[in-house]
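Re: the 328-residue chain
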Amino acid sequence: MSGTVAVTGAISFLGRNLVALLEEDERVQRVIALDVKAPSRVGPKTRPYAVDLTDSLAEVRMGEIFGREDVDTVVHLAFLSSPTPATAWAHELESVGTMHVLNAARDADVSKIVMRSHTLLYGAYPNNPNYLTEDHPLRARRAEPFLADKIRAETDVKAYGAEGKDRIVTILRMAPLIGPTVRGYVGRYLSHRVIPTILGFDPLIQLLHETDAVAALKLSVDRDAPGVFNIVGDGVLPLSTVVKLAGRVAVPMPRAAARALLSTLWIVQVGDAPPTLLDYLQYLCVADGERARRHLGFAPAYTTREALLDFAGAQHMRDARLLTEATS
């Protein structure tokens, strides 16, 4: 069990909830919370630092912090939860920022890295098997920066583990997050009353509840389990069922029309995702979670269906509140 744990992206949903769990764990001596601005509320064991990973001096500053605080585990969560049109900035944050974190970890001789990744990186293709294992190649479209930067970050983190026999690297490829609190691209997609889908296609969808994601991260800190693990909710649902359970109306569109619509919305910066993610509304991208169950001890508390229903209940309350405010 680690004595001092540093968490990047500490003010994100995953970051702040993991920091809270680490605060409560008597085996953890200190928690180092790193983000572009220091968390405003921290417990007695947490030491907050404002570090911008896009800054050229971030590597030096983190190296000093890791060394001074005697950090032995870094949980790297400083990644975007949704695509952004600001691709150059996103690249600096995720790809270059990851290099800053790893170089600082090398300088401070950090022995363990835990990184959050995505099952989306496998890519959605008509020839995908029903369940993708961790050995399946990452075939997501490299032309999409949201995916390419995360693939590059994974590659660099794996290399950190290969450089030294005493280093442990754990990469958690999580299914798309959903729940009553977290607000990623999936939640925004399902928050619209009318939802575009691809005409003639109804792919299976796999989701992960927000609390299960935090639990998997805590397990990865608690246990030395090197390797890559798919972190997914049990079960899958057809996209049509997902839309119905969310209380929304699907509008099937030819792919060309859907692409034109999403491209226009993305260009004017009111869309939820770029058109390159349309593949996931058309083809299968479902991961096998057995390795995480066997070697990490991760068992999701929520199925895909239960995670979706928890999100839908909270979303209906938000819809009702907005309606009340609009009519009052």
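The chain has ten helices and 13 strands.
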